[in-house]
Fold this sequence. Notes:
Strand content: under 5%
Largest sheet: 2 strands, antiparallel
Number of helices: 10
Structural class: mainly alpha
Amino acid sequence: HEATFEKLRSLLVEGKIPPGSKLNERELAESLHVSRTPIREAIRRLAADGLVELITNRGAIAVQLSLEDVIHTFDVIADLEGFSGELAANNISDAALSELEALQYEMMASYARRDLSNYYKLNLRIHHLINQAANNPVLSKLFTQVNARIEALRFRSNQDGVKWEKAVEEHQEMLDALKARDPARMRKIMIQHVMNKRDVVVQLLKSETTTSTAKNVETVKS
């Protein structure tokens, strides 16, 4: 059941199940070679995490946010990550810091291979570990809930090579700030990191909307 959940989650985050698509239990069970029971359980968990919407008479739909929803969500997660980073710089243990360094090393290896899927999984673990190091359970719960809404968009934001390189540099700056136990610097880096992600995502969505509109106009003309 756990493996099915993680696989289905990856399909959503990596856009292999596009936003707005219906999750067909039978087709998913066949493609993942499992019964429909773990699929149903995974969908319920994904709905609780905010990656799936359960809509009456339509079933489970991959969450699709409007541009306004995206901007608002990134604004909220920026403040949550900033506060999380600030608290982590004050509270992080030596053991957690060592674990972060190891994850950073693995993530850099994935970046060097341009393995975006594994890079993102390690990236997410780093963000969660920083959040845990803040030692505030309420903040951790809020972060997980809000971040789930935009995970697929955060994943896509690294598909631009220049922006991806910038994100990698910012992760090294986070590690340096944590090592220095500098809460103000850590807060600033975390907020800027998320705002940079937001800008990339907004630009991407606007570009897609423009392209889609142009195609529709061309179809009508033809």
